[in-house]
Amino acid sequence: MSYGDDTTVIARTVARITLPLVLVVAISLLFQGHNLPGGGFIAGVLTAAAFALVYIVFGMEYVQETIFGDEYEPDGSVAGPAVVDRYRTLFGVGLAVAAGTGLGAMAFGKPFLTHTDEVVKPSTEYVAWIPGADFIFGTLFKFHWATAFLFDIGVYFVVVGGLLAILAVVGGE
Amino acid sequence: MATEQLVVAPLLVALVTAILTLVVHRYVRAQKAVSALGGVAYVGAVAMLIQRVRSGAGSHGVEGVLTYQLSNWGAPFGITLVADDLSAFMLGLTAVVSLLALAFSILYVDEAGQRVSYHPLYHFMLVGVTGSFLTADIFNLFVWFEVMLMSSYVLVVFYSGPRHTKAALQYVVLNLVGSAFMLLAIGGLYSTTGTLNMADMARRLADPASFGITLAPVLGLSAVLFVVFALKAGIVPFQWWVPAAYRAAPAPVSAMLAGVVKKVGIYAIIRLYFTVFANAAPMDLALPGVVGESTLAFFGPVLFIMGAASIILGGVAAVNRDNVDDLLAYSSIGQVGFIVIALAFAAGGVVAGWQAPEPYGSVAVLGLAAALVYSLNHALAKAALFLASGAVYESVGSIEFEDLGGIAGRMPLLSAGFFVAALSLVGIPPLVGFFGKFLVFDAAVNAGSNLGIGLALLGAILTIAYVTRAWNRGFWGERSEAVEQATPQYGLFATVLVLAVVALGVGVAFDPVVEAAIDAANAALETGDYIEAVGLEDSLTSDGGGH
After folding, report:
1. What separation, in Å, do the N-terminal and C-terminal C-alpha atoms of chain B show?
2. Are the CB atoms for B90 and B521 separated by under 8 Å?
3. How many CA atoms lie within 13 A of B249 on its CB side?
4. β-pair type (A117-120, A143-146)
5. Of B389, B399, B374, B388, nearest to B460 (Cα)?
6. Helix runs in B157-241, H state only
7. Residues B311, B339: contact at Cβ < 8 Å?
8. Which of A84, A90, A36 is nearest to A60 (CA)?
9. Using the beta-carbon criterion (under 8 Å), do B16 and A103 form an inter-chain contact?
10. Where would you find the membrane-spanning parts of this chain (chain A) (predicted)?
11. Whether the Cβ atoms of residue A54 and residue A19 lie closer than 8 Å to each other
């Protein structure tokens, strides 16, 4: 069975090309969100927009059968199609991750939601003879980690799960 | 630090429970178990917090006022949570009602209903209520209001019939408008005073010259904010959403809405108008009919008029209702009127400095204590009555008076619970309701308000009238066919009975409760302690939290 027979070739081709771009931008926004414009919320919205595009162009059956491998059976129940259940779980897990990062701080004796970050640079002591070692190991491979990123991941899951659940329920009717 | 971590504990318990129930939503039994455990843990967390606050633990050397800086950002920039006697009192009544309403829900809401997110919503509503009682940041208060309202929107429309949808639509639109006004007022207060932290705001309002604040807009903005709180508390003229919403919601949700969520509006009025705005430097109000230079000189008469109108309208309308839920909904409008006129006497006491006998010391304390005890009474009794109404519906299949009659002989346990709760509402000793009414009368006498005494008397008579009617039509008299064929739900009756027994127990062991209420009233009036505990007296740059 082929999907999206009722949409034009143009729509399907454009969707195939833009989809990876949208997702890559979403992920990059997610990764820089803790100290630059971006973050879990906007990345989640963008991801949900990418899924909405797939829904519109290829139909809900495509997402459900190809991506999740579920049988698609449109039913009139309040809970909506079966895939909604997955979205709701994602939503719950996201909330758990976000709240978990807040609780994690309490394990270290800090108030709820306290966050920390650190810039890690590999030592250039033994590789100083390589030309441009400072640039390579000091700048290129400098790693800035922040616990706020974990919180952002939680927010991302919440937004993706929440918006997709709404889309699936409303779209399924 | 460990003691101060307790401040956030009730909030976190409710939040974690809400999330866990969401994660395990596929397994209905596990979800019920998690939800019930979370309800019990919430009571435990609140009990520990109350114990710490009552035993005098405090921050920055202030006894009985615990503060907590979320995310470790110092006040006034970070969000501060404050647990003092007032917050502890409100959390205490929330814990009791929420646990029993939850137990009732688990037995009452059908399997399909529980699958559709009932438990997460219930606990998120609890998160919002808890946050509202704890926060010392006025914008954060708005956020918790929204958390609470978002969940309550869905819970009101839970049965999704045409009538429920209509009621919920009205409720949603009204509260959205209310929230917009609240945001507007908070934005205005922020731009006027330059802060969102309640303690900081109180400090700045007390000394407007050195912070460069003009006081005149504060009165108007606080009046806009007052309208929003009055809307949440369901006081006349903002009462008309109450009956439809309470009828549409499942019984345990109505119990929570009437018992606890309404009290959030009352709490916000006490916290903001008595702790924060009352502290403002004298201002020339120059308004007709307003004597005095404090913001409370303006809000006192307003509270009195709204309270009086609520008592009369709620009481009169409750007398000739056709079904139990409508009667209870109108009754809550009238009962909240009692709380509000007690607040009016307290406001008058603050402005005029009226004295009252010990242990109160002043009418301000007496009025606030009366409002708090009455809130406790209303929370316990009205929650018990709404649960009883739900139990009648589940057993008999109807709550229309024309279908009821003779329940007392058929289901004596339920009737006993209903009877005790109804007596508490009327105010018969030794139930907690007696002390609530007594304190309101005491405040009226000490305030020298004959009109107030008359009103309270009228309200009491109306209460007797509609409670008697409910009892006569529903529980006594000829046994109706529906009641004859009823299947009693003993689990549901047990929760009603437990709440009734709590109302009785609180009345019998009233001393610690009235002490807690007086301490809570003092905490609401001791603005200096509140500011100091948040850690603001020294300088703006000091690191706020206790760490």
Report:
1. 7
2. no
3. 30
4. antiparallel
5. B374
6. 162-193, 198-206, 208-211, 216-233
7. no
8. A84
9. yes
10. 13-31, 38-58, 90-114, 153-172
11. yes
Closest CA relative to residue B532, chosen from B200, B275, B276, B56: B200
Instruction: Name chain B contacts of A96, Cβ cutoff 8 Å.
Output: 19-20, 23
Does A3 fall in a domain?
no
Integer Cα distance of B128 and B145 in angstroms = 6
pLDDT the model gives residue B544: 40
Residue with tokens 């009474």: B377
Tokens of B86: 């007032």
A63 Cα to chain B: minimum distance (Å): 21
DSSP type of residue B278 = G
The whole-angstrom separation of Cα B284 and Cα B241 is 36
Residues paired with B135 in a beta bridge: B81
| Residue B179: per-residue pLDDT | 96
DSSP helix/strand/coil, B486 = coil
Instruction: Give the Cβ contact number of residue B457 at 10 Å.
Output: 13
pLDDT tens-place string over residues B24-45: 888 889 999 999 999 999 999 9
Chain A CA closest to residue B2 = A109
Q: How far is CA B114 from CA B85, B239, B503, in A?
A: 35, 30, 29
Give B168-189 pLDDT, tens digit per residue.
Answer: 999 999 999 999 999 999 999 9
State the residue for tokens 């007797």: B464
Residue A109: how many CB atoms within 10 A of its CB? 11
- Judge whether A109 is closer than 8 Å to chain B, CB to CB: yes
Residue A2 lies in a domain: no
The reply to whether omega before B512 is within 30° of 0 (cis) is: no
In a domain, A60, yes or no: yes
Q: Using CB atoms, which residue from A85, A96, A113 is nearest to B71?
A: A113
What is the residue range of A37's domain? 9-172
Which distant-in-sequence residues (6+ apart) come within 8 Å of B292 by Cβ? B285, B351, B352
Of A85, A88, A109, the CB nearest to B1: A109
From B78's Cα to the closest Cα of chain A, the distance in A is: 11
Domain count for chain A: 1
The predicted-structure confidence for A73-121, as pLDDT tens digits, reads as follows: 655 454 556 778 888 889 999 999 999 999 999 988 899 989 988 888 7
- If we measure between CA atoms, which residue out of B277, B281, B246 comes closest to residue B261? B246
Mutate to test the interface with B, among A78, A85, A110, A112 (most CBs of B within 10 A): A112
Q: What is the ipTM of this complex?
A: 0.86
Q: Which residues of B332-362 are buried (b: 16+ CB within 10 A; e: fewer)?
A: bbbbbbbbbbbbbbbbbbbbbebebeeebeb
Q: 3-state class of B288 per DSSP?
A: coil
DSSP B317-370: HHHT-SBHHHHHHHHHHHHHHHHHHHHHHHHHHHHH--B--TTT-BHHHHHHHH
Block residue for tokens 């917009």: B180
Nearest alpha carbon to residue B184 among B229, B217, B225: B225
pLDDT in tens, B116-127: 789 999 999 999
> Within a domain: residue A62?
yes
**Contact at 8 Å (CB) between B529 and B66?**
no
Q: Which residues of B touch A115 (CB under 8 A)?
A: 71
Q: Mark yes or no for CB contact A112/B70 under 8 Å.
A: yes
Q: Are B81 and B73 in contact (CB under 8 A)?
A: no
- φ/ψ region of B463 (left if φ > 0, alpha if ψ in -120 to 50, else beta) reads alpha
Share above pLDDT 90 across residues of chain A, in percent, rounded to a whole number: 38
User: What value, to the nearest 5°, has the Cα angle with vertex B399 and ends B339 and B152?
Assistant: 55
Distance from the first to the final alpha carbon of chain A? 23
Q: Distance (Å) from the C-alpha of residue A2 to the closest C-alpha of chain B?
A: 32
